[in-house]
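Teaching note: in complex prediction, the entire set of molecules is handled at once rather than each chain in isolation. The prompt given to students was simply: 'Predict the structure of this complex.' The entities are:
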Amino acid sequence: MIFDKPVPTPAEFLTHNGLIWLLTIGVLIVAATAVSFLTTLVRYGNFSKGYQAFIQGIGAVFEDFFFLSWKRVWAIARLAVKESLRRRVLFIFAVFLVILMFAGWFLDRNAVDPTGIYLAFVLSMSTYLILLLALFLSAFSLPNDIKNKTIYTIVTKPVRSSEIVLGRILGFAIVGTALLCCMAVLSYFFVSFQLQHTHILTEKDLVAQKYTPEEQTEFQNSGKLYVTHTGTTRVANGHRHNLTVFSDGSIQIESANGHTHEASAKSADSNPASDVAGSARTRYAISPSKDILQARVPRYAVSPMIFRDDQGIDRLKGIDTGHEWNARGGIGSFTGSTNVAGIWTFENIRPERFPDGIPIEMKLGVYRTYKGDMEKRIRASISVRNPKTGLSIEALIFPTDEFITKSALIPLEFHDVAAKIEQRNGIDENNPAGAHLVTPEKKDESLTLKRDFNLFEDFVADGKVEIWLRCLDEQQFVEASLYDLYLRESDAPVVPNFFKGYFGIWMQMILVISFGVLLSTFLGGPVAMVSLFGVIIAGFSKSLLMDIAFGKNLGGGAFESLIRMLTQSNLMVDMNKSWGTAFVIMLDKISGGLLVVMGQIIPPFSDFAYYEQALQKGFNVPLSWMFVHGLATFGYVLPIFVVGYIILKNREVAK
Amino acid sequence: MVNNPDIVVETKNLTKIYRDFWGRQKVRALKALDLQIQRGEIFGLLGPNGSGKTTTIKLLLGLLFPTSGEISILEKTASDVEKNEKIGYLPEESYLYRFLNAEETLDFYGRLFKMSGPVRRQRVSQLINMVGLDSARKRQLREYSKGMTRRIGLAQALINDPDLILLDEPTSGLDPIGTKNMKDLILELKSQGKTVIMSSHLLADVQDVCDRVGILYQGELKELGRVGDLLKVSAQTEIRAENLSEDAKKKIEQIIADDGATLTFSGHPTTTLEDLFLNIIAESEARPGRRVRGGGVKE
Ligand SMILES: Nc1ncnc2c1ncn2[C@@H]1O[C@H](COP(=O)(O)OP(=O)(O)OP(=O)(O)O)[C@@H](O)[C@H]1O
Ligand SMILES: [Mg+2]
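The expected output is the structure of the full assembly:
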């Protein structure tokens, strides 16, 4: 996969994260209630009076939620919108415009993946500017109201603190959303126009295919299509396209730098089919670039991916070749040997979804044990296997391109080929030492008698199909993980997907606004801003923080690292055992525990980068992601709102 | 507390101590204030700078939380937002959004009340008209002069047609005509049956419009009563008669002399509020700790 960890399905998310959320909120509520009960008792210094006041307070809190008036929330939100419009919003937008105007000068449109570069640029610019805006608006607004005492005229109206907090979050969210939409629209046009180009193609760029006279007559009699010319277009944006001209005059242009073109002969009188030698007057029209932006829909295999070892036994891990990206889940390597393969199982494969065969895409790693001929690429093969009958056929053989996405099509029909039955030897979970689970138990060799096969009839059973990847060169390794090979369904529409790619930024913005409003209910403007900046940084480095918290990183926690730095000790060596080091490690345990708790509160900003990555790499953003992450965001915003409200309600605004 | 709908505001033993961040005491701004304000009266809070007038008003509105003591306002607690439905408040200085114009300002505040759109719009233009800002209704408040800001502040306090209006120094910053208008308006509000609490150190204003005044000095209520009663000089007696014969006059002088008193002046022996004010301050300084002499309610 393009991403280092899978996004949970809505069902997984709701059961797992939903429970954690409820638990966290439950703990928070119990703790907050206990604390406020005790402080009320202390303040009144008398149990029955304090108890009464506490009950009244709880009642007031419920009132503030149930009698919350959307009309007033909207009035406050409108004010927040007006306030932001007269402040920084237009300025931020102007900055964005200026940046786009000059961006074309230093972005390299001749690069191998210009779309990725351009998208990375506009997306990160949008992120920075939007988060900056969210930071300023949310951190300063309420403190300014309190400083200028405009809050006096608000809270002396029948406005609840809940409405003030919610209205502000809503108002800034509206402003930010509008601005983000403008940025997305501008970015869309920027990327598509900047990368738009065409190539020149004349007959000089074509080479006629040489055929013997017999071949020619045979082609013309059979009426089949045949290739008349091959060639390359002229250079534009730093690349050319290879192309093939067919006997009916159609031209097929290969993709380069992530896009293709369409081409046709311009003048009707010059038909290259009748003019094998090439007429001097033939001109070709090449369309503007297509598929600059893509929304590929990957269908991933079900977990786990299986690595079949050289004994032909299924394993959950492949051979560890020690590459750093082995850290990703489920990755492994396998070498050239008849038994060895990587096995992906796909479910729910229906002929309706794949009318032209099953397109697959993969991005493989290569590990060479000996240098050999570096120019010679390692070959690999793809087989399809029926998980029920074991019938298996080698569908494709291809040279691997390291780190480049390779596409291939598994055809609907196979003609004049041999198939065989492959048995799988799974390990019985309950009895790892002994008996293997062999599927299928009996080989039905009668299935292999024929020589023509149909993909869906012969290799798909109950919508399930297995794809086996083999390395064909001995002692070389191919590396792959569960997500490195996927089926490609028909593409999603590109324009909506472009906007979906901004959803991650949008959620970050919502979180920054909510945290900002929360902090500004009890901090002054500049302090709130600095703290909010801290929250953002923590959000972006959450995974690192969590590693430290759980003691996963080398060299120990913060205190141990400090000691190591001062004593210049090696990361890999354990510290000598002494009371001192035991104490330091204990300190780290404690601070790690605190970090774990804090970590529940820090929003996982890095998760939202998935959206940008999907867009940059030309993938469709699934709605299920948006659902899951949207819900997670809401899971943050709701308690933030409640806490902000409680703080503001108990704050003496006139102090 | 008593639930008497005729008592609009009642405080008992209301005390406010300002503390700093560390909880250390800074100022005792209000000391054990007992106050009852009746429906339909105009109550004036008088006192020199820093005597606790604004603090009192903020406590009533729930902008500050009392250190101790109790508040009942419109039969609700000060922290209950629903009381605000019927309250109008003009702060000491007009704290309004400077990027809005007069219409937008009033429209915004109007939206915070249960009020239909047409009623709101009608009230907005009526109030702009009333405070004399017709020609400046589309100008941003940042361009307003102090008096103009004051006027729009007043309009915003009246947007919900409140029953209880708290005005913190309503006449500060106004020109003589504005001051006159303000006083007329306060009397007009009274005639509509509304209750007004205003603070001021401009004695003439208070004298002209208030039914009762309370005089605060260093957070303590020093005097409380009807304006007329307070201004009566109890040590002096005024006798007024028509067609009194010279004889009778002589007799009276004689009686006064017999009583050991001296006839000092025959004329109008009322003092001015200013005298009273200065007296109280002088007395408080001479004998600190003396409490209010009158009762809480008009008898
Ligand atoms: N936020 C505050 N923090 C600390 N002390 C305060 C605060 N606000 C007011 N005070 C103090 O409380 C006392 C009463 O102040 P208050 O504003 O109520 O006076 P005032 O009667 O309204 O005066 P003025 O006529 O000048 O408006 C003063 O001593 C003042 O310094
Ligand atoms: Mg004051």
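Point out the following to students. The first helix of chain B runs from residue 53 to 61. Chain B has two domains: 7-231, 241-299.
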